[in-house]
Amino acid sequence: MPLSQEQRAVxxxxxxxxxxxxxxxxxxxxxxxxxxxxxxAWASLVSLITLGALLVMTGxxxxxxxxxxxxxxxxxxxxxxxxxCYYLVLLEAYDRLPAQEAQxxxxxxxxxxxxLAVPLLGHRLTRWDIIGGLVAYAGVWVIATRGAVFALEFAxxxxxxxxxxxxxxxxxxxxYSARDRRDPLVALFCNFALGLPIVFIVCALTAGxxxxxxxxxxxxxxxxxxxxxLAFALWLGAMRLTRSASRIGNLIFLSPFLSLFFxxxxxxxxxxxxxxxxxxxxxxxxxxxxxxxxxxx
Length: 297
Known about the structure:
Order of helices and strands: HHHHHHHHHHHHH
Radius of gyration: 19 Å
């Protein structure tokens, strides 16, 4: 029996969630052999190739050349944010923190987006945004202090600030990407195409461009193909097919828990009780923000 349109949307979304759930593990394993900027450079190159292949397969590659001057200037600016600044800050956080801490902290970007949308887009915070944010950032505090919530001591304050800083960059990227009227996959390809040379220049001036250890290169290929490329296409396909974007969107709540499973299995980190508690609070905060706000104040 053929699958319905909604069933296909769910399968595509679950595929994207599964791939995104491997990102923290791939980051951590790859950073054993590469510096953050080197991982970013090689992963971005692979991602650009992957996105280009997806455009060829869907017959949209020619749209890349149909943009206006303002489209390309926007892509250059956005390419400086993603991939360059966002992933570099995020990977620096993963280089300093256990994966089980960096991943949930980065997951709070939805709250950063809601906050930044107030001055930048003229949105207003609902009471559920505020309540959800307080619950989620209580989870951040639990994770950052590794459960010693009253000690006022962070295990790695620089890593925590980098992880939270990455949420600001990711939120800014999506706020300004929302003004781009091009096909999302076309726009993302252009952003990476114009950002990639700058990534390689930064890499060459700092860590160098020597071909890395095959294990580091394999990790970069995984990140570029799946986390930066295919997962985005799967999620975009799911959102186009579904009649209920909110139902599909809720599947993303599976990602951080699957991610902890992969971290435990492949990275070998013992998942601390504070990580489970903090992640639970972050997900509860997201659920409050995403679900209850739709019902109004």
